[in-house]
Automatic annotation (TrEMBL):
It holds the Pfam family Cytidylate_kin2. GO terms for molecular function: kinase activity. It comes from the Bacteria. This is Cytidylate kinase-like family protein. It comes from Candidatus Onthocola gallistercoris. Keywords: Kinase, Transferase. The keyword Kinase applies.
Length: 199
């Protein structure tokens, strides 16, 4: 069985799909956890990184790099490339332990050359479906607030991906496949991905 690496538009259902694939396949699921592991192994304060993250883009990976730019000036601290290298190695080490599902965090690029990983970009051509999903899963959020949040989160993910890979986040050439939840149900996407990873 292969691992699965997912990049997804906010509101597309990509996180839900990834979690359902992991559960059905009986394999681990990773999103923010792997960055916490990387940060801890690097000796950074998780609470400080999260606080910095909330004040900046909202993209944990992007802000680790920005935070490290100042952090590296302290005696004995590492450079931004070394910090990003630590994150990359954490993801690679987790995958070597066996099949897993990775959500975001540029895992599709980090694991791109690994023949045991299938990469997918999950998006939706139906904006109303995305907005309804965000409203339904949000905490008393209006459709107008959902639209603003969707635009903000997609911008952050695009910037983070570009920072890491120097590539366009939504370029289909980056992935083995794309799934459109505007026309495909969550369940159908799960079935497709389970077949793709050989479950």
């Amino acid at each position: 069985m292969k691992s699965l690496a997912i990049e997804r538009e906010f509101g597309s259902g990509g996180r839900e799909i990834g979690m359902k694939v992991a559960k059905a396949a009986g394999i681990p699921y990773y999103d923010g956890e792997l960055l916490v592991k990387a940060a801890e192994s690097y000796g950074l304060s998780i609470s400080l990184l999260k606080e910095y993250d909330e004040k900046r883009t909202g993209s944990f990976l992007f802000d680790i790099a920005a935070f490290a730019d100042a952090y590296q000036r302290l005696p004995g601290k590492k450079s931004v490339p070394e910090l990003l290298y630590t994150i990359q190695k954490t993801i690679e080490n987790i995958e070597r332990q066996g099949p897993a599902v990775f959500i975001g965090r540029c895992s599709t690029e980090i694991l791109k050359k690994n023949p045991h990983v299938t990469s997918v970009y999950i998006y939706s051509s139906d904006e109303q479906k995305k907005l309804r999903r965000i409203v339904d899963t949000g905490d008393a959020i209006s459709e107008n607030e959902a639209r603003k949040l969707m635009e903000k989160m997609d911008k952050q993910r695009r910037n983070s991906f570009r920072y890491w890979s120097q590539k366009n986040w939504s370029d289909r050439a980056n992935y083995d496949m794309e799934l459109n939840t505007g026309t495909l149900s969550i369940e159908k996407c799960v079935d497709i991905l389970l077949a793709a990873i050989g479950n």
